[in-house]
Specification:
Shape: globular
Largest sheet: none
Number of strands: 0
Number of domains: 2
Strand content: under 5%
Radius of gyration: 22 Å
Length: 423
């Protein structure tokens, strides 16, 4: 308890720094706008098309700039004024979001894809500019504390965005929420404008050298991962989880419509919010009991339980004549709890196995592959859902997750021992 109080006291003390407050407000308003827009986009595209395939295409278009610009965005940010990047990117996003309002008048779903592509391109500079600005306002000893603050603020924005998006749509309209996100983004640019001016840290690199450097880092990270069998298993688990998250986000509007019998916008506060609360509770339980239970038991139990919950959603909830939304709240909470049990130990495996000098390259490789591997499953899942409905897809995924959880509980220990022996 003393440690928590001390951390809070330290954060409040650091917040006396005007520039840190401005940067934090820039970050919070920007992230809240991002998540509000995300949930409205998913609901609106499904409302216009009634197609999960359209949502799969939406994710693919959003992910493309991450693949092609993400690896080099840090180098670009270092060659420009970070304050100007934050101001200009937020103002450009205001224009993009406002332009998205045209969709409500034209009823043209293709306009959404063009706008989300532009929005994603702008984000590739906005996010690293925020992160790179933190060291300018703080001593090195406070980096970890403040980065954790920004991380938890990001999670808080995601939770708040999941609640507000559905409720605001219910009591107003999707267009009102879109315009509200434009106002939030404008506020982000407003606070960024009061940050101190900064000079670029570097000159623009030669593109061939930047690409060569990126490929070398990816190769080094991949070579180390491929040489550690336990690392391969851990990477596979984390990437699999990321694929499941993307797939679930893509079928979320259809889930709300076909499983819960509600508007596609209602899933954000009836499913996503309790899901995130369960994930937070699961993470807390893991940290309190990490030495009492083996990681493979956390992972196996989490996957096994998650498989059962998915089957209940697919086979039981649609048969209920009333009260589906009330049942979805505890089920979603338990799904989040189970997901945390399955996911967090996988990342812990990577952190424990990766040497400190190569950890950045390894997690950089992980981030790159996360964007890369989610595109084909996202499209495939959207196509399958289109053919067999959300209920059928959830049944298949539930059975697969259940089987993997059972395997980990029964054979996970043998796999880990064999991996350690071969490594």
């Amino acid at each position: 308890m003393k440690k928590v109080a001390y951390s809070l006291k330290t954060v409040l003390k650091r917040f006396k720094n005007k520039n840190l407050r401005l940067l934090w407000l820039t970050h919070v308003f920007s992230q809240l706008a991002n998540y509000l827009l995300l949930f409205v986009l998913l609901g609106r595209v499904f409302e216009l098309t009634g197609s999960t395939m359209a949502l799969g295409l939406l994710w693919t278009i959003y992910a493309l700039p991450i693949l092609f610009l993400g690896p080099f965005s840090g180098s670009i940010v270092d060659c420009l004024s970070k304050r100007r990047i934050l101001i200009i990117t937020n103002l450009l996003q205001v224009l993009v979001i406002t332009g998205y309002g045209l969709v409500f008048f034209t009823q043209n779903s293709f306009l959404v894809y063009a706008l989300i592509f532009l929005y994603s391109i702008i984000n590739q500079l906005n996010n690293p500019a925020e992160q790179a600005s933190i060291p300018a306002f703080l001593p090195k000893k406070d980096f970890l504390l403040i980065n954790n603050l920004f991380f938890f603020s990001d999670q808080g924005a995601f939770i708040l965005g999941s609640i507000l998006s559905g409720l605001l749509v219910r009591f107003s309209s999707p267009l009102t929420v879109v315009l509200f996100t434009a106002v939030l983004t404008l506020l982000s640019a407003f606070f960024a404008a009061f940050l101190p001016s900064d000079a670029p840290a570097n000159k623009f690199p030669e593109w061939n050298k930047a690409i060569e450097s990126f490929l070398i880092k990816i190769k080094e990270g991949y070579s180390f991962i491929a040489g550690q069998t336990l690392m391969v298993y851990s990477f596979g688990l984390v990437l699999l989880f990321q694929v499941v998250v993307v797939i679930f986000a893509l079928i979320l509007p259809g889930f709300s419509s076909q499983i819960l019998g509600l508007s596609p916008y209602d899933a954000s506060w009836l499913v996503v919010f309790p899901l995130l609360c369960g994930a937070a509770a699961g993470t807390f339980l893991l940290t309190q009991n990490q030495d009492r239970v083996r990681k493979k038991e956390w992972i196996g139990a989490g996957l096994f339980t998650l498989g059962i919950i998915l089957l209940v959603f697919a086979l039981v909830v649609p048969r209920l004549k009333f009260g589906r939304e009330l049942v979805s709240l505890p089920l979603s909470f338990l799904a989040g709890l189970s997901a945390a049990f399955a996911y967090a130990p996988g990342r812990a495996f990577i952190q424990e196995t990766a040497p400190g000098k190569k950890r950045g390259r390894i997690f950089g490789t992980l981030s790159f592959f996360m964007a890369l591997v989610t595109i084909p499953p996202g499209i495939f899942a959207a196509l399958i859902t289109e053919l067999i409905t959300v209920k059928g897809f959830l049944t298949i995924i539930g059975l697969i997750v259940l089987a993997i959880g059972y395997f980990v509980l029964k054979k996970g220990g043998d796999v880990i021992l064999a991996a350690n022996h071969r490594s």
